[in-house]
Amino acid sequence: MYRLQTQAPPAVAGALHGDDQREEGLGELFGLLEMLEAAIRDDSMIRICYLLEQLSVAVQEHFAREERQMRRTGFPEVAEHVREHRAFTNEVYRVRLVYLDRSLAPQTVAALKDSLSRHVVESDSRHAAWRARNGRRQEACVMTFMPSPERDAGVAAGSC
User: Fold this and answer.
1) Of the four listed, 4, 65, 115, 154, which is most buried by Cβ atoms within 10 Å?
2) What is the pLDDT at residue 158?
């Protein structure tokens, strides 16, 4: 799997209250979306298929790690947050199916980026603020998307 190091958009990063680990993970998601936009412009079918698969995996891994952290730290809005994660994950899978059936418009990827940005600004920011107020208690989970032989072998690095 290709590991992308990039930064989350400034408005998104600003909503995370200095949560650098989460920002790194979101940077990969936004980076994959940007690469997907470029692949669409280049009309590169193989690259589009590859990036859609990578995006699906990265979204699942990021959300699973984030949900474990929320449960471990006792975040009171975890159930609603998980529902939002499932909705976005379903949106990513719907985009994959649409592409396999037809083609993928740049507006579709832009809508995914907007949806992810909105989720971070409206929902992740509440979790980050809650963690900041509660001293980021029990903070031992490393939520990064750095190269990891353990994660590439199917074991999440830094699991909570």
Assistant:
1) 65
2) 37
Q: What is the pLDDT of residues 78-88, one digit of tens each?
A: 999 999 999 99
One-letter amino acid of 141: C
Could you tell me what percent of the chain has a pLDDT over 90?
Answer: 30
Token look-up 């609603």 returns 80
Tokens of 44: 């590169």
Contact 30, 116 (CB under 8 A): yes
Q: What DSSP designation does 120 have?
A: I
Q: At what angle do helices 45-73 and 20-42 cross, to 10 degrees?
A: 160
pLDDT band at 138 (very low <50, low <70, confident <90, very high): very low
What pLDDT score was predicted for residue 98?
81
Q: 40 and 62 in contact (C-beta within 8 Å)? A: no
Contacts of residue 17, defined as CB under 8 A and 6 or more positions apart, other chains included, come to 125, 128, 129, 131, 132
d(CA 3, CA 60): 15
Residue 90: both structure tokens together: 């379903």
Q: Which residue has the tokens 């059936």?
A: 101
Among the listed residues 5, 18, 20, 38, the one whose alpha carbon sits nearest the alpha carbon of residue 113: 38
Q: How many whole angstroms separate alpha carbon 22 and alpha carbon 137?
A: 16
